[in-house]
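Researcher: Please translate sequence to structure tokens.
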Amino acid sequence: MDEDLNSLAERYALKRNIKLGERLGFGIHGTVFAVQDNTKPGFFAVKFHLEKRPFELESRVYQRLREEQTTRILGFNVPQLLRIDEEFRAIEMTIVRSPFLLDFADARLDEAPDFSEDVLRQWEEEKAEMFGEKWPEVTRILAALEAFGVHLLDINPRNVSFPEETQ
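Model: Translation complete:
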């Protein structure tokens, strides 16, 4: 899996004349690299997806957030969409600092997940335990996202970074 994504990233870097930097994150849907454009100063991030469906879901969410000119949600920074490349299943975005909210590969746009009450209760219990005293703030973030039609399922401490003073 890593080899496939690394190869994809290297081919993409050649095509776009960019330089891959450190790996910023990875998960079941893909890998995120810091990237430097050889013609401009500074860095941005590129997420390479293993599969088409999560790529399409995440692309649609970032497009929606861009349309809504959303850079922050309840004080949490959200990466800004820079470019989408369907051939490489790549999403270019800004790099954000904490506090942040990221990773929309499991999100649903304009359709709430069709969970049974039992499944939803179990999901909420698991997430509440995971976030502890921060869970009420996480539920406010989820509600704010839902106002944009974004239903985020993969909510975990790697995807929601709280301000330093509340950790």
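Researcher: Any highlights?
Model: The CA atoms of residues 44 and 94 lie 5 Å apart.
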